[in-house]
Specification:
single chain, Rieske Iron-sulfur Protein, four-stranded antiparallel beta sheet, 0% helix, binds FE2/S2 (inorganic) cluster
């Protein structure tokens, strides 16, 4: 099973403000969606490789800055085209004010 990796302090995350972080060799996006809930998604749009972390969060969804595809923050599912494949959502845990993420794609 993959290891948990610390990627940020919780107090460094403003609500609904995405942040690009590294998870080992991978670039991922994390976002605080409430006081005690953080999500982590792939930072690569499935439409044409846009950086999701540069997008805007509105009503629980993040919009790709390149062509406007929307993805659900909670599931990574596509909510609006031109993307048709969702983003992988990584497991997140919060401990002692630290955000931990695990890359479970090959577990
Ligand atoms: S690269 Fe994201 S919508 Fe096109």
């Amino acid at each position: 099973m993959s290891d948990w990796i610390s990627v940020s302090r919780l107090d460094a995350l403003a609500k609904d403000s995405p942040l690009a972080v590294e998870l080992g060799d991978e670039h991922i996006m994390i976002a605080r969606i409430s006081d005690d809930d953080v999500v982590a998604l792939e930072d690569l749009c499935t439409h044409d490789g846009g950086e999701i972390s540069s997008g805007c969060i509105v009503d629980g969804a993040i919009e790709c800055p390149r062509h406007g595809a929307k993805f659900c923050l909670k599931t990574g599912d596509v909510l609006a085209p031109p993307a048709y494949e969702g983003l992988h959502r990584f497991p997140v845990k919060l401990e002692d004010g630290v955000v931990w993420v695990r890359d479970d794609r090959w577990d």
